[in-house]
């Protein structure tokens, strides 16, 4: 299971060649969350032109 700073991953809910979905707890407030990530095989292969925060800011 991958490590994700600020979260404790508890359980894999879904996994395929592109995506992994985990049940997790956010360390800062112990809130239960669902985390979706790129599969470890895909990390570094997907082109990224902007950080995620910039993409999210445009949607607000």
Structure description:
It is a single chain. The protein is mainly beta. The chain has one domain. It is built from 1 helix and 3 strands, in the order βββα. The chain has a 3-stranded antiparallel β-sheet with strand order 1-2-3, with no helix packed on it. Strand 1 and strand 2 form a beta hairpin. The radius of gyration is 13 Å and the shape is elongated. The N and C termini lie far apart (32 Å). About 8% of the residues have low confidence.
Q: What's the layout of helices and strands?
A:
Layout: E1 7-15, E2 19-26, E3 32-38, H1 52-59
Antiparallel strand pairs: 1-2, 2-3
H/E series, N to C? EEEH
Q: Give the CA-CA distance, first to last residue.
A: 32 Å
Low-confidence stretches: 47-51
Mean pLDDT: 78
Structural class: mainly beta
- Rg computed from alpha carbons, rounded to a whole number of angstroms: 13 Å
Strand order of the largest sheet: 1-2-3
Give the tally of β-strands.
Answer: 3
Quick one: overall form? elongated
Count of structural domains = 1
Number of helices: 1
Largest sheet: 3 strands, antiparallel
Helix content: 10-25%
Beta content comes to 35-45%
């Amino acid at each position: 299971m991958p490590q994700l700073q600020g979260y404790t991953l508890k359980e894999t809910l879904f996994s395929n060649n592109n995506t992994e979905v985990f049940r997790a707890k956010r360390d800062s407030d112990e809130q239960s969350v669902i985390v979706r990530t790129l599969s470890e095989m895909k990390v570094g292969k997907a082109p990224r032109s902007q950080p995620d925060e910039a993409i999210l800011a445009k949607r607000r």
